[in-house]
Amino acid sequence: MAIVTGSDPNSIIGVGINWGTMTNHQLSADKIEVMVAIPNFMLLDISQDPSYTDYWVDANITTYAYPGGVDIKYVAVGNEPFLKAYNATYFQITLPALKNVQNALTRAGFGNLIDFYIAISTKS
């Protein structure tokens, strides 16, 4: 459904289209395995605050990974956090972040269902 009002085409600022819910769940019930990533800028909070990690898992995993929902198989903790370009910024916080993610996934009931990884580049 598209609604356009007004008689002067130059006065139309935007057009709204209602797709309903058919585009809100693109990956639900598909046979596509999904990896969700935690960006590097979130690693400090994830590493220091288990309650924040629980919140992240609830918002990004539990909300979508239910029977008939998105088939989330993996969580990437950081995006190549050990690259030389980061000047060791993430060295001390990546492992604690990984442990907090593991614990949060277990508390949420995904401990045996979702694997977690740290993406590592072979480039310097």
From TrEMBL:
Key word Transmembrane helix present: no
Pfam families, per the entry: Glyco_hydro_17
MF terms (GO), sorted A to Z: hydrolase activity, hydrolyzing O-glycosyl compounds
Entry keyword set: Glycosidase, Hydrolase
Any one GO BP annotation for this protein: carbohydrate metabolic process
Cross-referenced InterPro entries: GH, Glyco_hydro_17, Glyco_hydro_17_plant
SUPFAM superfamilies per UniProt: (Trans)glycosidases
Domain of life: Eukaryota
Similarity comment: family membership: Belongs to the glycosyl hydrolase 17 family.
Protein known as: Glucan endo-1,3-beta-D-glucosidase
Origin species: Lactuca saligna (Willowleaf lettuce)
